[in-house]
């Protein structure tokens, strides 16, 4: 009889505990289903790379306008625009007047696992009438001028031109090259819409060149030459806050459009 009473007590205890055990299991199962059915959305990482800096002034134009100063100002404005428009992590390779190597810039992009890499530069030429905006993505040089520009921007690189071509041959078939070309097209379109007419911008081209900083970023990337500091009109314009704001808005719009195209492609798969 004692065994019978003990068994009954154990049975009643189990019956009393059963609802709480089931509820706990439901909570755990619910969390597991939620984790697998609604995966966390990836927050894109965009690395903005203001060219030159510190001991490297970059191009120096009319009225002693220095490339390193102009591109930092515009990069800061671009970072704010992107933070306003996108739910993304914005990273600057430099946010002050300091020198950083090409490898150091690449390291930031790789370490942060960048989804996009935007390198901002200003152009220069021996002819003061040279003008316009050029948007580059990684490939063999479009023309001799592009080759000379790449050679200038690649100073300090530890890799030779032949090394870069070898790396390029392995990258050219990848999706990254296609996406970089898409990014360049979207930025060109929004610059044309916002900047070209208002500021009578006559030259706006997409080109390709072997820029070392684009080789090592391991992400869809473009290098923007936002104007010629050696052109009197463009040097003055690049120094104006209003123009810097309009240009940064145009570039940001292009980046937003790029992500919209990528999103629509994934939906239609």
SSE topology sketch:
Elements lengths: L1 H36 L7 E6 L16 H19 L3 E4 L9 H10 L4 E8 L9 E6 L5 H10 L7 H11 L3 H22 L7 E6 L2 H4 L5 E8 L3 H7 L2 H27 L2
Parallel strand pairs: 1-2, 1-3, 3-6, 4-5
Antiparallel strand pairs: 4-6
Q: What's the helical proportion of residues? A: 40-55%
Shape descriptor: globular
The average pLDDT is: 81
Largest sheet, in brief, is:
6 strands, mixed
> Which stretches are poorly predicted, pLDDT < 50 over at least 5 residues?
10-40
Task: Encode the helix/strand succession as letters.
Answer: HEHEHEEHHHEHEHH
Which strand order do you get reading across the main beta sheet? 2-1-3-6-4-5
Domain count, please report it. Answer: 2
Q: Which secondary-structure class do the elements indicate?
A: alpha/beta
Tally the helices: 9
Q: Could you name the CATH class of the largest domain?
A: Alpha Beta
CATH topology of the largest domain: Aminopeptidase
Terminal CA distance reads: 70 Å
CATH superfamily of the largest domain: Zn-dependent exopeptidases
Tell me what portion of residues adopts beta-strand conformation.
5-15%
Q: Overview of this structure, please?
A:
The protein has 269 residues and is of the alpha/beta class. It folds into two domains: 1-40; 45-267, 3-Layer(aba) Sandwich (Aminopeptidase). Helices cover 54% and strands 14% of the residues. Strands 2-1-3-6-4-5 form a six-stranded mixed beta sheet, with helices on both faces. Helix 2 links the parallel strand 1 and strand 2 (89-92). Helix 2 (67-85) packs across helix 9 and helix 6 packs across helix 9. The chain is globular, with a radius of gyration of 27 Å. The N and C termini lie far apart (70 Å). Residues 10-40 have low confidence and may be disordered.
């Amino acid at each position: 009889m004692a065994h019978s009473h003990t068994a009954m007590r154990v049975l009643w205890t189990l019956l009393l505990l059963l609802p709480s055990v089931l509820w706990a299991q439901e909570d755990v199962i619910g969390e597991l289903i939620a984790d697998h059915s609604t995966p966390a959305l990836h927050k894109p990482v965009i690395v903005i790379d203001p060219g030159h800096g510190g001991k490297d002034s970059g191009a120096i134009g009319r009225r002693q306008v220095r490339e390193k100063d102009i591109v930092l100002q515009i990069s800061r404005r671009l970072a704010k625009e992107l933070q306003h428009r996108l739910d993304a992590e914005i990273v600057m390779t430099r946010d002050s007047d300091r020198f950083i190597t090409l490898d150091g810039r690449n390291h930031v992009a790789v370490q942060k696992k960048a989804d996009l890499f935007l390198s901002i530069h200003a152009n220069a030429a021996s002819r003061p009438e040279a003008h316009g905006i050029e948007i580059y993505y990684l490939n063999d040089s479009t023309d001799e001028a592009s080759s000379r520009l790449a050679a200038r921007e690649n100073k300090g690189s530890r890799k030779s031109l032949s090394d870069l071509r070898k790396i390029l041959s392995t990258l050219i078939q990848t999706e990254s090259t296609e996406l970089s070309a898409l990014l360049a097209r979207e930025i060109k379109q929004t610059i044309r819409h916002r900047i070209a007419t208002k500021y009578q911008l006559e030259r706006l081209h997409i080109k390709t060149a072997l820029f070392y900083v684009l080789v090592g970023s391991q992400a869809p990337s473009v290098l923007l030459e936002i104007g010629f500091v050696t052109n009197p009109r463009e040097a003055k314009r690049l120094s104006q806050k209003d123009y810097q704001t309009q240009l940064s808005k145009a570039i940001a719009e292009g980046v937003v459009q790029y992500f919209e195209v990528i999103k629509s492609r994934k939906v239609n798969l």
